[in-house]
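Justification of computing resources. Each target in the renewal requires a structure prediction run like the one illustrated here; the chain below, 149 residues long, is used simply to show the kind of job we budget for.
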Amino acid sequence: FAAQPGQFDFEKVMRPDPSYLPERIFFACRGDEPVGTAAAYHRPRFLPDAGMLHYLGVLPAHAGRGLGRPLVAAALGRMRRDGRRRAWLSTDDFRLPAIATYLRAGFEPLLVHENQRRRWAEVFAALGWADLSERFAGLLAGPIHPLPG
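Resulting structure tokens:
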């Protein structure tokens, strides 16, 4: 997607990354127009045997149409073909539609800082899924897993 001043720039952020391969970038298109994307990356510094779901995004005019689910599936499929048996991602608390997509895809919270216990409870409340706090109670009460480096 075209970069606007102050926003993400593919040429500066993704292409120079050592994990970048064109075949790890997936698109959802309407006709010839890309309207959504996701990438399958590998950051061995954090979890050597896992793939990283990277930059899932859908143009605002196409949001809410279920495009995130097949994009996530395509990226996870690539990770599997690359020999990865698990996957991780990083996101922001306010990206509720993306978080909902990740949870539906089977991702689970991994606490890397103490403040995430409260933050995840707030995310679950904002999503309005009453069962999430119960479903992940053990994880939210469990240990912190700081990422290396």
